Amino acid sequence: MDSYQLVITGICEPTAEIADQVLDLIEDVMPDEVLDRTTLITLNQPLVVKSSDSEAQLTALYDSISRAGGKVQIIRSRSTDQFPEEAPPRRYPPVVEESTSTKVKTLEELQTLVARHRSAGRKIVLCHGVFDLVHLGHVRHINAARKHGDILIITITADQHVKRGPGRPVFNHNLRAETLSNLEAVDYVAIIDAPTAMASIEAIQPDVYVKGQDYKDKKKDLTGKIFDEQEAVERYGGKVVFTDEITFSSSQLINLYLDSYPPQTMEYLKEISSRYSIERIAEMLDALKQMRILVIGDAIIDQYHYCTTLGKSSKENIVANKYLSEENFAGGSLAVANHVAQLSDNVTLLTVLGENDSFRDFIQAKLNSKIKAEFVPRPGCVTTVKRRYIAGDTNKKLFEVCFLEDTPLPRREEQLVGNFLEQYLKDYDLVLAADFGHGMITRRLMGMLSRPTNRLALNVQSNSANRGFNLVTKYARGDFICIDEAEIRLATHSRFGDIPKLARQICHRLHARQIIVTQGSEGSLSYVQGQGFSKTPALGFQKVDLVGAGDAFYALTSPCFAAGYPQDLIGLIGNAVGSLAIQIVCNREPVNKTDLLKFLTRLLKF
Ligand SMILES: Nc1ncnc2c1ncn2[C@@H]1O[C@H](COP(=O)(O)OP(=O)(O)OP(=O)(O)O)[C@@H](O)[C@H]1O
Ligand SMILES: [Mg+2]
Description:
By secondary structure, the protein is α/β, with parallel strands linked by helices. The chain folds into 3 domains: 4-82, CATH 3.30.1390; 104-252, Rossmann fold; 283-299 and 331-382 and 407-603, Ribokinase (UDP-N-acetylmuramoyl-L-alanine:D-glutamate ligase), CATH 3.40.1190. The protein contains 20 helices and 22 strands. The strands form 4 sheets. The protein has a 9-stranded mixed sheet with strand order 14-13-10-17-18-19-20-21-22, sandwiched between helices. A 6-stranded parallel sheet has the order 4-7-6-5-8-9, with helices on both faces. Strands 12-11-15-16 form a 4-stranded mixed sheet. The longest helix has 15 residues, at 567-581. The radius of gyration is 30 Å and the shape is globular. The structure holds adenosine-5'-triphosphate and magnesium ion.
């Protein structure tokens, strides 16, 4: 028997004729949906109906809908054995091979449907996940879940909230929803605009919430969300059950079969995954919580003024832009402190703010509440602002204007910073000097920071404002140095020299134990005295904004260095951080520890 699905959209003024025809077609197919003439007449959304009737009936319906100003798509039935060997001759448009499904609903629609099913005494089962690359493990999990009730709903995380690192999800949420909706056991699918399952649980209040067996040991859930989910499900009188089906991993399958990285990177990942497990890395990162860390350095307010292009100025040879909006970010040492606070609960920030236009309230609001901040006001100055004019929403910079006072800190303020260091430096396990060369860290303060009793991690930046005057070689020593390729070339006056040679040279000169040279899309090169070199490739290629990637790399690798972690692991963590950082607009937010662990989980799945 022939079987079709119709997707009817945009009926402006459905006639009684259409209502009759549709009802004839769907009558015995969708008894649950209680479709009467009224619902049909107000219908302005896709509706799937199946026809077990004749070609003539379909053609008549198509004609009636077209006359009423509506549209209709005729879609091949899911079950090929129901489909005739030879398609019948037809006057309606060709069969569409795509599988659009009305099982995909919004959360609001689901709420209505759930209420209806509940009142009919049906038990609601919910599963939630990303479901990127659906595999047999998912299919069995879903089939097992369905057995716990009468209606199975699957909610999936929308693309913008999937935190599995660059390039993921491989399949966008519409495709993921479509795949799931084609599974027999699934009644409804919804795409959830939220990072966790909580929104689904709150809205659906399932009788049964089903998780895979990998969540049975709740402590293994990196996000810790399973505890909140269980609490919410039980609050609404439901229960959480775990299926006991074979587990495959989408990430593992994608890593193994979908060539998500170039061959050398794949080799690198396979090799390093044999040396470190994600559980071990998570433990190592957790062990940094108690580390007492001081971040000292120039505060910067990064400012983006978003513009749209108007056209060439009539009198000048310039392109005029129209201002759209602006956004401020806590940058420089403020961003470094926020990144470090993802790892340590004991972070102090020591920085200088302008007495005028200090941005103090903004900074307080943007700093992680765990950070103890010491602000030294600099009289007669503004806090450094780097204003970039940005083309539309592309994050492409057009022009930059800096508001800064970059002469060395006056004697009195230098004394205030010096007093703090004199009194408290001994209390810290690690000091990060985030030196952007804007005057805060004077020669005298550098001398204090470089004392052998401190463990010092240095990031000495070259930027347009300091034009190569701010070199790491200003410091007498440092234990860990993290700079980019341009910075090491300037510091060694070597435009074309071999980076490994230059890295070793700087490492020796500053009596450092480790140096890392970050190289943008080339990843990073590390050198440890007495151990040699370790190269790590870049791990992400989707760039939103490159600003601040090096700062994030430096901030999150420094505590790992201080804890004595191996250089290959530091390289992996640093480049994973860099990959996540280039997806964040400027310093809008720090690289989040949970996101980092999720990304590393996926990278190490082989
Ligand atoms: N274009 C890119 N493609 C892939 N990864 C990148 C790219 N740019 C940066 N990264 C990642 O970020 C890390 C640090 O970047 P980079 O070497 O550009 O630092 P930087 O010049 O100090 O940046 P900034 O000073 O703006 O913070 C790299 O090691 C790499 O992991
Ligand atoms: Mg940098």
